[in-house]
Amino acid sequence: MAQLPVELILMRQLASYLATPIFLVGPEGELLFYNEAAEGVLGYRFDEAVELPLAQWIREFPLFNTESGEPLSVDEIPVLRALRERDPVHGSLLYERPSGERVPVLATAIPLVGQGGRVLGAAAIFWPVSGGANA
Amino acid sequence: MRVEIWGSRGSLASPGASTVRYGGNTATLLVVGDEGEHLVLDAGTGIRPLGLKIPAEVRRVDVLITHLHMDHLQGLGFFQPIFRPDLEVHVWGPPSITMPLSARIGRYLSPPLFPVTLRQMPCRLELHDAEPYARIGSLRVRSDLVCHPGPTVGYRITSPGGKVLAYLPDHEPALGVDPFPASPEWTSGFDLAHRADLLVHDAQYTDDEYRDHVGWGHSSIRQLAAFARMAEVNHVAPFHHDPSHSDAEVDALAGELATLLPGAEVLPGAEGATFDL
Known about the structure:
The complex is a heterodimer.
Chain A: H1 6-17, E1 22-25, E2 31-34, H2 36-42, H3 46-49, H4 54-60, E3 63-64, H5 78-85, E4 89-96, E5 102-113, E6 119-128
Antiparallel strand pairs in A: 1-2, 1-6, 3-4, 4-5, 5-6
Chain B: E1 2-7, E2 28-32, E3 38-41, H1 47-51, E4 60-64, E5 88-93, H2 101-108, E6 124-129, E7 133-136, E8 139-145, E9 153-158, E10 164-168, H3 190-193, E11 198-202, H4 207-211, H5 221-230, E12 235-239, H6 247-260, E13 265-266, E14 274-276
Parallel strand pairs in B: 3-4, 4-5, 5-6, 10-11, 11-12, 12-13
Antiparallel strand pairs in B: 1-2, 1-14, 2-3, 7-8, 8-9, 9-10
């Protein structure tokens, strides 16, 4: 695999030091990284998930509409909307943990636009609704 | 191609008795291609004496700037070829999403910091954002952003015969990576340096000094060793010597690097050093 753009490398390095849950995807929506704080919410260590293509991580991390309880489509997942629309996206959703428990989550996603205007991926900051950023 | 070092000091020019062997001029290299291309890497204070040696028959010079910190730009206004009307001078620098290169360089090359503006330079001057892939004569030039404060690129220059110079004078790939190095795809500068025939790379600090300068954009000698090992480079020129380091201290750092890279050739960047690739 070729070296990733330095903007993504720096984003991962920053995320790895923050206690705010952060989820990072590449330009095709592939999972690149999530940090330790995100592991606490998602219920999987990053080492277990590693880097997954889009089709796989949306199965591994089931997301649902807060009101209807229906699965979110690819077009509704905040981090993928931010990537596609090149705009910040904020929303609420339900995440189904490995135990089957569904937890309400707030997510804010931003596109990562690098030098020269290249869209390099997107990052989502998220937290359980009742728990605060460090939950 | 031939690579000449005209300035290897980092941060600030540091002339004096203790820096005579490695030199006090800031970052400047000359690359002469097999077809006579003249590429100047960075416009530190070493570019002044270099400019006096550019042959009169040369009609084009390309100045490839890694970033706009003063130790890489300060010499540009003293580069004698820019006062030659018969010369094309192409200046390449890191892209910015807010200002063109001419505006950013013009902040320095204009009053009150400098008496002459870019537009007053007699040469035929062209400024370019560094492109990921470019060709200058027979040389292929790759640039890529690297980990250093502010937009900063490194360069990988490949000759028609496939010889490679990698130039990353200001680079802190270990920032936030513990343990360093991570895998190649998550390491700043890897693609630029991979299997280069000569790697000219930041080695400003001892391990102790680095601990007090995390995030300043530079590497320790041990980090350079790890980076070179991962990039499979066997010829390394530690560069961007700290202005406070004497020749003896640079010797000691180079000795440590040689110990950490058994089998590799380690020659600290020194003014006057030349490498034929």
